[in-house]
Amino acid sequence: MLSLTNCVNAIIERLSKPDQSHLLSGAEDVPLALSQVLWQPGEPVAHVYFPTQGFVCLIATGPPPSGLEMAMIGREGMVGVQAVLGSDRTPFCAVVQGEGRAWRMATDVFQEHLVRHPASKRLLDRYATFRFNQIATLAHCLCHHEVGPRLARWLLMSQDRAGSNNVQITQEALGSKLGVRRVSVTVAATALQDRGVIAYHRGHLQVLDRMALEQAACDCYRSDLERYAALFYETHSG
After folding, report:
1. Global pTM value
2. Which of 143, 160, 167 is nearest to 68 (CA)?
3. Residue 233 and residue 228: Cα distance in Å, rounded?
4. Is the dihedral of CA 64, 68, 70, 73 positive or negative?
5. Do residues 206 and 165 lie in contact, with contact meaning Cβ atoms separated by under 8 Å?
6. What is the distance in angstroms between the CA of the first residue and the CA of the last residue of the chain?
7. Which CATH number fits domain 4-141: 3.90.1150.10, 3.30.930.10, 2.40.50.140, 2.60.120.10?
């Protein structure tokens, strides 16, 4: 029998105990390997994932490092949110950016769970709305914010999901994720390093001052946190 005490995914933890038990009875605990591709754009999505460690990135055009990063999902959410809406396809490539583990569930089994458990469906409908709003925020961020604040936001999101001050990533890969040239990342990272916020050398990045990094980030980071908190508040109050 699966133990709920080992379930450290925030979405699953918010479900009632009966809903948790039913969901996990159809799931399996699987590893997430670094750079593992969970699916390609346009392919049928056979499984949804609830990460418990590590995180997955959704890439707009092909696998990294060539594509723009549209979302970063760790233990706070689920990968495959389109299944909540009854779809099994997505325009994004899903790639593991931080190795870890996840509960994996067949898409059709997951969708059947939502039919049988309306409270789960209500929570995941709200989560889907949050994710769509997050992508809209990203579009605004791309158009209106400088590279430095966007880089700070990305580093905070990565740190939140990895649970570590250290990130292994090249400037070229960072540029692809942020949709900018490598030289722009170099300038932004150097500015943060000169202020003692981060240390960066040959693909190894370390966050030295979390508070200063939060101050350097654009407002999109805080907006996402507030929307995510509201997701659970609405579920509890509803």
Report:
1. 0.89
2. 143
3. 9
4. positive
5. yes
6. 31
7. 2.60.120.10
Q: Give the whole-angstrom CA distance, residue 221 versus residue 214.
A: 8
Eight-state DSSP code of residue 79: B
Q: How far apart are alpha carbons 177 and 175 in whole angstroms?
A: 5
Query: What does the alpha-carbon distance between residue 77 and residue 133 come to, in Å, rounded to a whole number?
Result: 14
Give CATH 2.60.120.10 domain extents, the chain. Answer: 4-141
Where, residue-wise, is CATH 1.10.10.10 in the chain?
Answer: 146-217
CA–CA distance, 58 with 73 (Å, rounded to integer)? 8
Tens of pLDDT, residue by residue over 2-13, are 333 455 899 999
What single letter denotes the amino acid at residue 39? W
Nearest residue to 48 via CA among 142, 113, 139 = 113
Task: Say whether the peptide bond before residue 91 is cis (omega within 30 degrees of 0).
Answer: no
- What does the pLDDT look like over 49-102, one tens digit per residue? 999 999 999 998 754 445 888 999 999 999 999 999 999 888 899 999 999 999
What is the Cα–Cα distance from 182 to 67, expressed in whole angstroms?
A: 13
For residue 163 the two structure tokens come to 């649970």
Q: How would CATH label the architecture of 146-217?
A: Orthogonal Bundle (1.10)
DSSP result, 207-218 = ES-HHHHHHHS-
Ordered DSSP codes for 168-198: E--HHHHHHHHTS-HHHHHHHHHHHHHTTSE
Number of CB atoms found within 10 A of residue 28's CB: 12
Between the alpha carbon of residue 111 and those of residues 52, 132, 198, the distances in Å are 20, 19, 43
